[in-house]
Amino acid sequence: MPQTQTELSNGNGSLYHFLPQFFLTAPPPPPQAQEHAACQQPASSRTTAAARHRKHMHLVGELPQKSMAALAKQYGPVMHLKLGEISTVVVSSPESAAEVTKTRDAVFANRPASLAYKILSFGGKGVLFTPYGSNSRELRKMSTMSLLSAKQVRFFRSIREQETVNMLRSVASEASGSIVNLSAQIMRLTNDITARALIGGKCRYQKEFLALVDESIEEMSGFSLVDSFPSWAGLIGSLNGVRRKLTRLLAQIDLIIGSILDEHRAAWELSGEKEEKDLIDVMLRIQHEESLPFSLTDEFIIAIAMDLFVAGSDTSSTTLQWIMSELIRNPAVMKRAQQEVRETFGGEGKPAEEDVGKLSYLKLVIKETLRLHPPAPFLIRICLEPTELLGYQIPANTRVLVNAWAIARDPAVWGDDAEEFRPERFEESAVDYKGTHFELLPFGSGRRMCAGMGFGVATVEFPLACLLYYFDWKLPEKEIELDMRETFKLTSKRKTDLCLRAVPRLPLP
Fold first, then answer.
1. Coil, strand, or helix at residue 392?
2. Within a domain: 461
């Protein structure tokens, strides 16, 4: 029988089945007829759909976005699950997504931060999960206007062009031997672009910084008993040593990025002027000017630097790999995209990023990839106060997951070919990924929309165009079909590396 609002708020009952990332314990929603009946009652008497706690790990699987999409088809676009001790509502329709990210955006303005993120960001001093309030508004304003503005993205164009050429030469060298591990090439590319934009091109600590980023991503990607069972946090943290490990990692982050800050300050003193060559320089200038209503300490700068790198490099790498995967699986799309790129850049021309704006079909390819493979399948929020969502009463502190992956593959929204890779669907469509169309939310929407969208898209477009311009791509010999399995970590990425044959067609620059 459905829970009452009081029962939902108290979170009575507990299950002890665990799932990586979520540690999901899922009571099945009530029968469809019961849910519909609840929807027809006056709003004051409606409750979130839920049922008695029972063990249903077999309903969840390794890819929560897929399993929850299947549940939503059976039980509707708003359903209640118990994730460990965490009361959670999953929404899976454009209408419910609009309620969360637009209509009631202020109520759902917070994101839940994991223990790993809290510790590694000095108690939540980064941008990604800072509780909504005056500080978070100022940090987001700084991000959108000073760090990741369109002007700043243009400023880093030469970095993208230089690092793309480096990647192309590496691909050509690897292709002369045998198969190219394109996943490794792309990851190195996005890491190098983001690192140069963030900390500069000649930083002697870059290798150590990248190693810390990789370790931080790994720590934030795994499952967490502490996050799923907060009432046991102290005991669990002591038993499994996670707090000690994260604290040691934070000390390393503080040391290495602190040294990078000192190096930048020393360069300023040596030159006698505060030249802004990278994003660390920008943040140090803001710190020096004391232009924020709070002190932008080194801890804030370090936490924001980690946020920018993790959010910028990992998502761009994931997206580029999925694009190339889909192009290999769809030869007609590959042919049309290559034809456009080669006609635009010329037979023996030198590609320049300024010409990317002419590649209209390539942009559709990117958009279609973001639809089928959003880097973050879920938009995660916390309800700050009791509210109503499509007629259901949602208690304060309820966690809300917007299943952007499910919405983007819903046949009711996209038609019977929703699962097919077909960029042409956007040729006569105004739907975009900039947060105003709730059927397509790869970068989120509202107050918590990704501030780095412009930087991320720019990191994808030009390298992709060059990969298609200079090389023809094929599956390895004897490989009939590309492995498209995915894994759910910090982003939804390929389970296996993308390894292809690259056939050079023009001399590299």
1. strand
2. yes
- Per the CB < 8 A criterion, the answer to whether 165 and 202 are in contact is no
- The reply to whether 175 and 53 lie within a common domain is no
Do 152 and 74 sit in the same domain of this protein?
no
- Residues 123-175 have pLDDT tens digits of 999 998 888 887 889 999 999 999 999 999 999 999 999 999 999 999 999 98
My answer on whether 410 and 464 are in the same domain is yes
d(CA 359, CA 356) in angstroms, rounded, equals 5
Structural domain boundaries enclosing 473: 120-504
Is 103 within a domain?
no
Look up the CATH number of the domain holding residue 263.
1.10.630.10
Give tens-digit pLDDT for 59-95.
556 898 999 999 999 999 999 988 788 899 999 999 9
Task: Verify that 85 and 176 share a domain, yes or no.
Answer: no
Could you please report the per-residue DSSP string of 198-255? HH-TT-TTHHHHHHHHHHHHHHHHS--HHHH-GGGHHHHHHHH-HHHHHHHHHHHHHH
The torsion of the CA quartet 355, 360, 363, 369, rounded to 10 degrees, works out to -150
Shared-domain flag, residues 275 and 410? yes
Same domain, 87 and 211: no
Higher pLDDT, 4 or 260: 260
Query: Which pLDDT does position 60 carry in this prediction?
Result: 57
Same domain? 73 vs 141: no
For residue 21, the SS3 value is: coil
More confident residue, 41 or 372: 372
* Euclidean distance between CA atoms 322 and 334, whole angstroms: 13
Give domain status of residue 97, yes or no. Answer: no
- pLDDT at position 344 is 96
> Is 504 in contact with 175 (CB distance < 8 Å)?
yes
Provide the pLDDT for residue 347.
78
The residues, ordered by sequence, that sit 6+ positions from 272 with a Cβ below 8 Å of its Cβ are: none
DSSP 43-106: GGG-----------GGGT-S-HHHHHHHHHHHH-SEEEEEETTEEEEEE-SHHHHHIIIIITTT
The single residue listed with the structure tokens 């880093």 is: 156
Based on the structure, what is the number of domains in the chain? 2
Q: What is the pTM of this model?
A: 0.88
Task: Give the helix/strand (H/E) hosting 307.
Answer: helix 298-309
Domain co-membership, 376 together with 500? yes
